[in-house]
Amino acid sequence: MKIKDIIFDAIKGFFIGTALLIPGVSAATIALVTKVYDKLITNISSLLKNFWPSLKALLAIGVGVLIAIVSMWIPLKLATEHILFAIVCLFAGSMIGSVPDVANNIKDEPIKKRHYLYLLLAILAGMSLGIMSYHLDVNVSSLFNPISWQLYLVIIPIGFLASAGVVVPGISGSMLLLVLGFYTNILRLVDSIKDQPGQVIGVLACMAVGVIIGMFFFSKLMKQLFKKYKIATYVWIIGLVIGSIFSLFYNHDMMAYYQTHGIVWWEGLLGTILLIGGFVGSYYLVIYQRKHKNETGQVSK
């Protein structure tokens, strides 16, 4: 691989890593736009069979992802502490703008009555994430302050779920973390690293294990689902994205924020602006992707 290609892969990895941290933005969608999605899926799913070639192909992208996570961690933590509602509005706008991108994959496919039922069930499933996190009083913070032994067990399946954002277009892993109450708590782990360095590293290592297992699982699963149940799979993805927009604003963390901070007029205004900005930015990302696909198709003919 040429140096230029390595640098470009690292830059693309940086954008993917940034998307991983931002709830509502699908890292898999960013991978599609930057033309590394197929490369990611192919090499992740073949790591066990062709370890070194696959690892080399993923290395530059992985470095870019790590740089993004390290550099963006603190700014996002501060933003969620002081203007969480406005930031969530940005995430929601980004999610709304990404729906056409997912729907575009089945625009020419025959939609049957059962697919509308799947869509409704998926929307309800996405909404139920936030409802359950609040009404079941999922107080995730108690696992983090102080770090308890139960967290080491819980964080593995949480990392497994979050990994879906890397592989499933339209799904944001960090959004799932936010809805389940883990997003802000994981960001705040940095504050505990001086007092509990071993525990913090242990928690992050367990989460990494879950993410790695999840990436293997979802990469193979998505290959089969897209091959055998393409329409149903995309319909479920669309429904989950739509339902999750509700859950962004209605979950345990957000309800606690409403009660302690309230929504002052300037944050409401900022949230509205960011909602529109997130929608416009995400939507034009979709337009760019479609244009690029068309140009690529024309060249290949």
Structure description:
This protein is an all-alpha fold. The chain has 16 helices and no strands. Helix 3 (37-45) crosses helix 4, helix 8 runs parallel beside helix 13 and helix 13 (197-228) runs antiparallel to helix 14 (230-249). It is globular. It starts with a helix and ends with a helix. The mean pLDDT is 82.
Annotate the secondary structure layout.
Elements: H1 3-21, H2 27-33, H3 37-45, H4 51-82, H5 84-103, H6 113-135, H7 141-144, H8 149-162, H9 164-167, H10 173-180, H11 183-187, H12 189-192, H13 197-228, H14 230-249, H15 252-260, H16 265-300
Helix pairs in contact: 1-2, 1-4, 3-4, 3-13, 5-14, 5-16, 6-14, 8-13, 13-14
What is this structure, in a nutshell?
With about 300 residues, the protein is mostly helical. It has helices at about 5-20, 25-35, 35-45, 50-80, 85-105, 115-135, 140-145, 150-160, 165, 175-180, 185, 190, 195-230, 230-250, 250-260, 265-300.
